[in-house]
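Notebook entry, structure prediction.
Reason for the run: the old model in the group folder had no record of what sequence produced it. Starting over properly, with the input documented here first.
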Amino acid sequence: MVGPNAETVVREAIGYFFSYRHFCYRDIERSEPNLVALFSGPIGDVFVDLLVSLGMEVIWRTGGEWCGRTQTGVPSLLAAVTPAASGV
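New structure, fully documented this time:
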């Protein structure tokens, strides 16, 4: 849930995903999963840029729409389920 300070949830997402990937995938030599951070509301372009630079797809809710962004050339989970989604 995005509250008044998006930085907190972004930091939590980074910590969660990287520890999850390390212990559940790298540590036992499994192929790394695609990382998708899903937020209940906008987190701001600066945090979206940060997460995308770390290799995560970012999806958030704005009003009645889902928006998102991923690295260039990487298939989007959001586009797979809502082809007309904006911001992908």
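Summary: The chain has a mean pLDDT of 84.
The old model has been moved to the deprecated folder.
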